[in-house]
């Protein structure tokens, strides 16, 4: 019997690609690096993000990059929407007393 459902946030429950891409470009521009096209971002971005930033912004402190990213993402996240049926699935889990974790 299934008792727990564990979700990933990005791309599973929400489409946050545009917000992440724009916030990444804001971060890159703050260190004097060129912005990435969406195609380039999709090809190059990887997790863990610290390795990605080491590659595209060598020598820049992660703490500084995170400050710029968070500054931009604070606004960009307002545009993030749930993917179709995500809320319905949460209602299903609640109805069936399934614990959900994000």
Automatic annotation (TrEMBL):
It holds the Pfam family HAD_2. This is HAD family hydrolase.
């Amino acid at each position: 019997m299934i008792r727990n459902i564990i979700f990933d946030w990005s791309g599973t429950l929400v489409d946050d690609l545009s917000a992440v891409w724009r916030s990444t470009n804001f971060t890159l521009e703050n260190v004097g690096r060129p912005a990435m096209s969406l195609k380039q971002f999709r090809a190059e971005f990887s997790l863990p993000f610290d390795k990605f930033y080491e590659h595209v912004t060598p020598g820049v402190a992660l703490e500084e990059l995170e400050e710029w990213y968070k500054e931009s993402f604070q606004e960009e996240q307002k545009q993030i929407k749930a993917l179709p049926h995500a809320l319905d699935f949460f209602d299903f889990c609640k109805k069936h007393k399934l614990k959900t974790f994000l």
